[in-house]
Structure formats: structure tokens, C-alpha cells
Design a protein that fits this description.
The complex is a heterodimer of chains A (about 110) and B (about 110). Chain A has about 110 residues and is mainly β. Helices cover about 0% and strands about 50% of the residues of chain A. In chain A, the strands form 2 sheets. In chain A, strands 2, 4, 5, 6, 9, 10 and 11 form a 7-stranded mixed sheet that branches. Chain A starts with a strand and ends with a strand. With about 110 residues, chain B is an all-beta fold. Helix content of chain B is about 0%, strand content about 55%. Chain B is built from no helices and 11 strands. Chain B has strands at about 5, 10-15, 20-25, 30-40, 45-50, 55-60, 60-65, 70-75, 85-95, 100-105, 110-114. Classes of the chains: A mainly beta (about 110), B mainly beta (about 110). Chains A and B meet through strand 4, strand 5, strand 9 and strand 10 of A and strand 4, strand 5, strand 9 and strand 10 of B.
Chain lengths: ~110, ~110
């Protein structure tokens, strides 16, 4: 049981480049989310999904796209990278029936946009 | 506008003593509060939670207290151990959230000295 996995761990992009951050979970969780963490700020929700084929925007969705074709995978696409997207990105999943609403996080992807 | 605030970026305590981490929030409609612990190069991991209808929840060395009138919660760690050294995030669940959406504080770095 690997939990939530993310690839790559580190990435450097030039402004204007696009890329996809991968996220997968093997816990059969219904909910999956993408967060970004910036210095001095808490984790902020980018996009989320409540099941395969269903996604919606979070707090800071601009510049990002997501899709959820399977329960396991939830990739995050940066359409045209900007320096403001330099951040640490965390994918998380959770079980719809969880009593404590806890989320399980991946190890993160540290992205630098130059 | 940050709805969840952790005003102390760092805290240092001696091994064996009590660690108290604080968190304030502005939205009185939050219905669940969680604490996460994060080690370097890892994702946050769930530690303990409390429902808004309770004022205390205990799990081993960890106790969370909720003061709804003051919109304040705190995490007590007794006794503190060097392995507790990590960044602690407070999170609050968005009311009526369909995906366990959380608002996170910026985190407090706890250092427990041997």
C-alpha cells in the first residue's frame, strides 16, 4: 500500500513551458485535491475532485487544469508556467465516509519557474 | 484573507516539557478542526481532530482544546520528545464541504531540544 504518490519530486521550468504533475493513490479514496504551499502561507486548494469524471475549482485555480479519468489518478497540468507558480505542490486524497475528514498527502513536488 | 492563523512561526521547548501550539480562526461556521504534522521533504500527516461541538479531544500525548467563543484552538503535546520536532499545521473544515475542503494555517515549526 503506497498511499499517495507524486512525481516528479523536483522540477525546474522556464516561463511559458507546460508540464503535468502526476498524482496517484491506491486507497480507493473518492476525494482527491491539489494544494500549493508558499512561504508564510498555509496550504491553498487549487482544484479538487469528488470522483472519477468530476472536478471543480478551489481557492487558487488560475493557470492550472485537472482531470480525473480514474479513481486512482489526478494529474495537475500547468498550462503556461509563470514565476508566481514557483511553489511546493501537494496532492491529497480522502475517504468520503471519514469521521475525522482527514486527508492523506503525497510527499510533494517542488517546482521552480525561472 | 487568511481564515486560519497560526501567529507563532516557531516554538522551541525542552524535551519532557509541554509544547503548546496555537491557532485562531475567523469563520464561526467551521465544523471540524484538524492538526497535521509535517517533516521535511514529506507531506503533512494527520495527527488529531476535534468537532466544533466538543471542547477537548485527547490521543495519547496529544490533546486539542477548542474555545469556540474565542475562535481559538490549541494543541498540547505532553511530554514533548525530540521526534516531535516538525512543522504543525492547523486546519479547519469548510462548512458543508463536499470534498472535505480545508483551510490551513501557515504552520508552526516546533523544535524539541534533548
Amino acid at each position: 500500500n503506497a498511499g499517495v504518490t507524486q512525481t516528479p519530486k523536483f522540477q525546474v521550468l522556464k516561463t511559458g513551458q507546460s508540464m503535468t504533475l502526476q498524482c496517484a493513490q491506491d486507497m480507493n479514496h473518492e476525494y482527491m485535491s491539489w494544494y500549493r504551499q508558499d512561504p508564510g502561507m498555509g496550504l491553498r486548494l487549487i482544484h479538487y475532485s469528488v470522483g472519477a469524471g468530476i472536478t471543480d475549482q478551489g481557492e487558487v485555480p488560475n493557470g492550472y487544469n485537472v482531470s480525473r479519468s480514474t479513481t486512482e489518478d489526478f494529474p495537475l497540468r500547468l498550462l503556461s508556467a509563470a514565476p508566481s507558480q514557483t511553489s511546493v505542490y501537494f496532492c491529497a486524497s480522502s475517504y468520503a465516509g471519514s469521521a475525522a475528514y482527514e486527508q492523506y498527502f503525497g510527499p510533494g513536488t517542488r517546482l521552480t519557474v525561472t | 484573507d487568511q481564515q486560519v492563523k497560526q501567529n507563532s512561526p516557531s516554538l522551541s521547548v525542552q524535551e519532557g516539557r509541554i509544547s503548546i501550539l496555537n491557532c485562531d480562526y475567523t469563520n464561526s461556521m467551521f465544523d471540524y478542526f484538524l492538526w497535521y504534522k509535517k517533516y521535511p521533504a514529506e507531506g503533512p500527516t494527520f495527527l488529531i481532530s476535534i468537532s466544533s461541538i466538543k471542547d477537548k479531544n485527547e490521543d495519547g500525548r496529544f490533546t486539542v482544546f477548542l474555545n469556540k467563543s474565542a475562535k481559538h484552538l490549541s494543541l498540547h503535546i505532553v511530554p514533548s520528545q525530540p521526534g516531535d520536532s516538525a512543522v504543525y499545521f492547523c486546519a479547519a473544515r469548510e462548512p458543508l464541504s463536499i470534498n472535505n475542503d480545508m483551510r490551513f494555517g501557515a504552520g508552526t515549526r516546533l523544535t524539541v531540544k534533548p
